[in-house]
Amino acid sequence: MKFTDWEPIYGAILADFGFDRAADEAVRDRAAAHAEPFDLGRLDCAGATVAVAGAGPSLEADADLARDADLVFAASTAADRLATDGVGVDAMVTDLDKNPGTGLARTERGAVVVAHAHGDNGDLVDEWLPRYDAAHTLVTTQAAPVDAVANYGGFTDGDRAAFLADRCGAERLVFPGWDFDDPDVDGMKARKLDWGERLLHLLERRRGERFAVLDGRRDGIEPL
Questions:
Q1: CA distance 207 to 99
Q2: So what's the pLDDT on residue 184?
Q3: What whole-number distance in Å separates Cα of residue 53 and Cα of residue 204?
Q4: Is the pLDDT of residue 94 over 90?
Q5: What average pLDDT score do residues 80-95 get?
Q6: Distance of CA 141 to the CA centre of its chain
Q7: Does 182 score more than 90 pLDDT?
Q8: pLDDT at 124 over 90
Q9: CA-to-CA distance for 140 and 158, rounded, in angstroms?
Q10: Mean pLDDT computed over 58-79
C-alpha cells in the first residue's frame, strides 16, 4: 500500500483515537537515526502461504496453521509463544512494548525484526533501537515514510504484519491466533482490534482474497 492510499485511513485513525500526527512524526524521526535501508528481498513471499500470527488466546490451538505455512510473520509476543511450540518465525512485528528483549535477541542472531515507531513509544524507541542490529531491523511508521523508515500500511502489530506480507508478494494469508471477540480485551485495545478487523477486511478486498478469520463477520464490519 502506498502512503497516498494509506494517508486517509491514517487520518481517520488519528481522529478516532485522538492521536497526534506531530508526535508520530517526531518519534519516527528519532527512529530514523537508527534505521538502515532494509532489503525486502529477505522477506520474499512470492508464491507463498504466509501465516500472520496474532497473540490471541487461540494461538496455541492454531499453531499447526503457522507450522504448515511457508513463512510466519508474528505479532509481538506471538513470536515467543510460537517458538515455545517449535514454530520458526521469519519476521517479528512489534512496537517494542511487550517483549523488546526478544527482538534484541533476534537481531543479534541475524533474524528479522520489524520495529514500529509511533507517538506513544518514543522512550522504547530511544532505549531499544540503538541496541538492535540495524542490518536485521526494518523500521516502520504509521506516518509518512522518511529515509530508511518505511510504511506499508496497517495500524496494530498484527495487521501491519499482514500488510507487510502482502507487500512482499504473499500468495495466500492465514491468521492463527486472531481473536476479535476475546472477552479479556476491552477499552482502547478492543477499539484497536476493531480497527485491525476493518483493515484486514480492506486488505482482503484489495487482494481479491477471502480471509477465513473474517468468515461470519463481514456483514458487521464498517468498510474502509
A1: 31
A2: 84
A3: 16
A4: yes
A5: 98
A6: 11
A7: no
A8: yes
A9: 14
A10: 98
Evaluate if residue 185 carries a pLDDT over 90: no
Could you tell me which residues come within 8 angstroms of residue 2 by beta carbon, excluding any fewer than 6 positions away?
Answer: none
Identify the DSSP state of 140.
Answer: E
| DSSP string for 56-102 | STTTTTTHHHHHTSSEEEEETTHHHHHHHTT---SEEEE-SSS-HHH
For the chain, give the number of residues.
224
Interhelix angle 157-167/187-207, rounded to 10 degrees, is 20
Grid cell locating 156 = 496494530
Mean pLDDT of 117-145: 98
| Distance of alpha carbon 195 from alpha carbon 155, whole angstroms | 8
H-state helical runs in the chain: 3-17, 21-32, 63-67, 78-84, 100-108, 122-128, 157-167, 187-207
